[in-house]
Amino acid sequence: MANIVTTFRNMFRIEELRDRIIFTLIALLAVRVGSLIAIPGIDTASLKAAVNANSADSGIFQIYNLFVGGAFENAAIFALGIMPYISASIILQIGGVVLPQLQKMQREGDDGRRKINQLTRVLTIPIAALQAWGVTIKLVNDYGASIPDHGLFWTISSVLIMTAGTVSLMWIGEQITDRGLGNGISLIIFIGIISRLPVGIYQQFVTSGADSQIGRDLVIGAIFLTLLLGIIAVVILITQGARRIPVQYAKRVVGRKVYGGTTQYIPLRVNTAGVMPIIFAQSILFIPGTIASFFPNVEFLRSIEFALRPDGFIYALLYGLMIVFFTYFYTAIAFNPKEVSDNMKKNGGFIPGVRPGSATAEYIENILTKITLPGAIFLAIIAILPTFAINVLTVQPGLASFFGGTSLLIVVGVALDTLQQIESYLLMRHYDGFMKTGKIRGRAGVAS
Questions:
Q1: Of 9, 178, 228, 234, which is the most buried if we count CB atoms within 10 A?
Q2: Beta bridge partners of 306
Q3: At what angle do helices 60-67 and 405-428 cross, to 10 degrees?
Q4: Short-list 77, 161, 164, 87, CA closest to 124
Q5: What is the pLDDT of residues 338-349, one digit of tens each?
Q6: Which helix (H) or strand (E) holds 406?
Q7: Chain centroid to CA 130: how far?
């Protein structure tokens, strides 16, 4: 414990690190303020009362409200959050598999990465505008009484304001990445999710347990805390887990210098796909409920929505199976064994006992397939833990989301990334890090 306190004290002794931490905190504060400023033309008091009365609302809007820290239910200028940027990034990542132009950009190094980032920014704008229009429809259909004048002018102005809010968040995220600490886009999602934790605790132990005894609440709270810490420990273990493949590089003599002759490792992560399979599966399963919300009088859509309710068995089963599928799908997109094999061959590298070329690619792909299965099963179990917590442990939905699923994986992953960057600054300035070994490993950002 003393080592951690000393480490935090050392963080503010390094001027550059201190400035980055302060800048990051100010930027995240601006994000939270924007999530509380409502769109013009909305009666916020009436909207809050209507949202509380309709707290069981389901659909893809639940995902947005979680990621944007309640900005959606506040009808705030940041109601869309950074999700349109994430969607644009995913579209370009998938497009890089089938479009030769994007494949060429991906192989151009820093220059290609800048072009892809610019394309992502441009694509974010129409996606944000389309989603903002959907939000206005949702607000009018469900909370029309809270919008005195919801005509064409209000719709257009709201779409422009929410689109501008997403562009502002995108700029803030890039500023955090350049001038702050950690991945800015990931931290914006992180702070949105964390901001919902006090609300979940309040719903669990104050609203729902008003008639219970204080002692009983303390015991239940201790059990919840212990269980949550255990789940987080397992998530960190799996997130950090990797299979290292040794790569030997042949010696090369260039002038009077000798290059190569060393052994390096290719780290194949157990959870290569990260949180993306859960996002894909969750988005697809919420589509029927979202469509049903637009057509409340269609009985067939309502029956499908009821069958796929998030706390049901059918939802949990389909959810787990789809996560396993999307884990393999996204891993195939994110990691190309043939490309890795070709790069190794060009640089004179080889895996001991394996022939270079196609044999190396098959060897890497075989290992990746084997370690992806436990990673996929792990993701499926983590994803359905909130459903288990709601049905078996009678945890309120607001708090149950922190027992697993997308929110827990993002929070753990972003925390590891940020700690890794802080650790690098401390070790570079000859201070002790959080761990004696100095080997905190992060993971790829939510939107890389």
A1: 228
A2: none
A3: 30
A4: 87
A5: 888 888 888 778
A6: helix 405-428
A7: 22
Range of the domain at 75: 35-180
- Closest Cα partner for 121 from 79, 87, 95, 158? 87
The 10s digit of each residue's pLDDT in 215-252 is 556 676 677 778 878 888 888 888 888 888 888 877 66
Whether 329 is in a domain gets the answer: no
In a domain, 127, yes or no: yes
**Burial level of 79, CB count in 10 A (0-12/13-18/19+)?**
buried
> For residue 259, what is the enclosing H or E element?
strand 257-259
Residues 6+ apart with CB under 8 A from 137: 294
Residue 273 falls inside a structural domain: no
Q: Burial level of 313, CB count in 10 A (0-12/13-18/19+)? A: exposed
Residue 438 domain flag: no
Alpha helices in 68-151 (DSSP H): 83-98, 100-106, 110-143
Instruction: Say how many domains are in the chain.
Output: 1
- Measure the CA–CA gap between 169 and 164, rounded to whole angstroms: 9
Closest CA to 416 of 393, 396, 446: 446
